[in-house]
Specification:
Elements: H1 2-16, H2 20-50, H3 53-70, H4 78-99, H5 109-129, H6 144-168, H7 171-187, H8 190-213
Helix pairs in contact: 1-2, 2-3, 2-4, 3-4, 3-6, 3-7, 4-7, 5-6, 5-7
Length: 214
């Protein structure tokens, strides 16, 4: 991916004579486009093969809805971000699909309890830790209260959607969205940063043999 983006930037530079600022902006935009397309394409293929396509995208979009205002831990390379962004929603979708068929969820009360408990935890975590920052992307102090308010608004909209799905008894969709929110909440806590860092390190070990073969 990095080589493709470098070639595109080189071609644009030859044509448009980009300065350093425009090169950086173009590189950032291209990375976002490539990562987004790769995630959606990969998730579509894998989740379709495993029969969890709708739930996988509910998971992806539920997490993304909170991610942009909450922030949180990131992986150090785009390739690792792509891999986890595909594996995570697929795993959550599979778990939600399986758990939704258990007898426990034939009545609405367990789902109501899960949503309420998650709502309480979400309010506390947003208040304590959001928005989450990274060393490479610190946020100005004036921006943080605004992002925190957006996170609360998103949480209220999410709750309205959960109530609607509860009325329709869409158990698997509710579970997938709840698990996606729980994963996002974890990513902004100190424990989540350490866990994501550990996963990132494990992925780097897996990448090393592949890089040596090239």
């Amino acid at each position: 991916m990095e080589q493709i983006i470098e070639k595109i930037i080189y071609a644009l530079d030859e044509t448009l004579s980009l300065d350093e600022d425009n090169k950086a902006i173009t590189e950032y935009a291209l990375y976002n486009v490539f990562v987004t397309v790769s995630i959606i394409s990969g998730l579509s293929l894998v989740s379709l093969l495993l029969g969890v396509l709708p739930l996988a995208f509910i998971t992806l979009f539920s997490g993304a809805a909170f991610r942009w205002s909450m922030g949180g831990a990131h992986y150090s390379t785009p390739s690792r971000c792509i891999v986890i962004s595909i594996m995570g929603p697929v795993a959550i979708a599979g778990l939600a699909s399986y758990v939704s068929r258990l007898r426990t969820f034939t009545a609405p009360s367990p789902l109501v309890g899960i949503v309420l408990v998650l709502l309480i935890f979400a309010c506390a975590i947003i208040h304590l830790y959001c928005p989450g920052e990274t060393e490479n992307n610190p946020l100005p102090d004036t921006r943080k209260p605004q992002l925190r308010r957006i996170s609360y608004i998103t949480l209220i909209l999410w709750l309205v959607l959960m109530i609607y799905l509860l009325r329709l008894n869409h158990v698997s969709q509710i579970l997938a969205s709840c698990l996606a929110l729980a994963r996002q909440l974890l990513s902004v806590t100190p424990v989540g940063y350490r866990l994501f860092g550990l996963i990132d390190m494990m992925l780097s070990f897996l990448e090393s043999p592949l890089k040596r073969r090239r």
